[in-house]
Amino acid sequence: MAVHELHVSIYGRHAGVITRSGGKVRFAYDESYADDNGATPLSLSLPLESLEHQRRPVMAYLDGLLPDHVRVRSRWAKEHGVTEGDVLSLIGAVGLDVAGAVQFHTDPTAAQPAGGLRRIDELELEERIRHLREDGADWAAGDAEASWSLAGAQSKFTLARDGDHWATATGSAPSTHILKPGITVLEDQALIEHVSMRALSAVGLDVARTEYAEFGAEPAIIIERYDRRTRHSTLRIHQEDLTQAFALMPERKYEDKGGPGLQQIGQLLGGIDTEGRDRFADAIIANYLIGAPDAHAKNYSLLLVRRSAMLAPLYDVASGLTYRKDDTLRFTKAAMSIGGERHFGAVQPEHWRKAAKNLGVDAGGMLERVRELAGTIPDALRDEVERLPHEAARQRLRDKLVPAAARLSADTLESLATVRERRWAEGRAAAIAAAGPQPRRGKGLGGGQFMRTPQPPTTGTLPSPS
Ligand SMILES: Nc1ncnc2c1ncn2[C@@H]1O[C@H](COP(=O)(O)OP(=O)(O)OP(=O)(O)O)[C@@H](O)[C@H]1O
Ligand SMILES: [Mg+2]
User: Fold this and answer.
1) Is the pLDDT at 220 greater than 80, yes or no?
2) Topology of domain 253-416, per CATH?
3) Whole-angstrom Cα distance, residue 169 to residue 259?
4) How far is the CA of 114 from the centre of ligand 2 (A)?
């Protein structure tokens, strides 16, 4: 049955109602909720300062909670008896456990399914992952009581940790983890995502925790949800992704499809979380250095707690450097432009400087972070690969991922060093010209070659390239 009224609760409190009438969709906060200083907005695009909001930001927010994978949506529509493309009704069916601390109810007076945890053993997990690998659209397979949704195009399902066991969260119960089998057509994809995220965490970035597991023959990455916090019980923390924050539909997640780029995101973060803007700059650098092609606006989120918003930990970070076609890199570009350049290996100091300007951060500081991360990420990746328990996988990544990432970082460092050397050489030339004619040097001392092969300074006596 089509839903015309969706009741929205945030952090367990009734916050407002989304209604649809004659094609018009609107969201109205409860006045008592919006007036409360402790209230959290549903989205930055649905601020509490206005009680009523019209269609565009409401639909962008709701649509952004659902899978990007159209076949998953149509399957869910069929399973729940709603019309394909009817986002309100779909959210009404799967909206008890979604990204963040929001829950949707179609009838607030009816008893809500309290739900709980149903343990799932390793054999069942193996079976479910195998089934998902065979039928990539069946995300909620065999889970009749499921009422969860997550965005993204890749196969996945939610899990909850129950002591030492894995469980399925049913009804209103919060899941705590996300399991992804990885992209089948890309070798070792789940493993590479795990290693990429671990390596960035090792160099100091704030990244969601992951583990890599094999259930029988089925590999998977299991990601801990940072929007859940478990002490005695599990609480939800509110979040939204950047397309939702900008009131954009999910299909605009890539910058070249109309999604936000560094300038818009820098401006947004500059107004709410300047420390988060620095972390975002780090994320742009790190995603570039590992050749991650998919860091689009739905792969960055904001945590929303009362009236404050901050950049969430990083997730869905994976290098694409091991995938080649006819001996050329298959994924050649970053998702967002870095000062006008996206190709891996082609970003030069002037692009980093422009990117810093777009973001609103200090250019010298950003170049310094490029240098630091290019110096540390290759070792961190190698260490994570060496830590893997399976020798065969370790060897594959040792042979492919580690050298490819080391090369990209080395090229990046070289592009920065070139500027440093050029400036140093120019400085020397100016100093020599100012000092007047020099005595001729003997050949053995380098003679006229000196200026063509300058050595970089070992101390900071010359202006840094930034
Ligand atoms: N660790 C996490 N904690 C909380 N929420 C998360 C976490 N990881 C992912 N999410 C949420 O789940 C969504 C889907 O996850 P993810 O981005 O990993 O899926 P994906 O299908 O690989 O995405 P894509 O389509 O970008 O490839 C994210 O957009 C985000 O809202
Ligand atoms: Mg994603």
Assistant:
1) yes
2) 1.10.1070
3) 33
4) 29
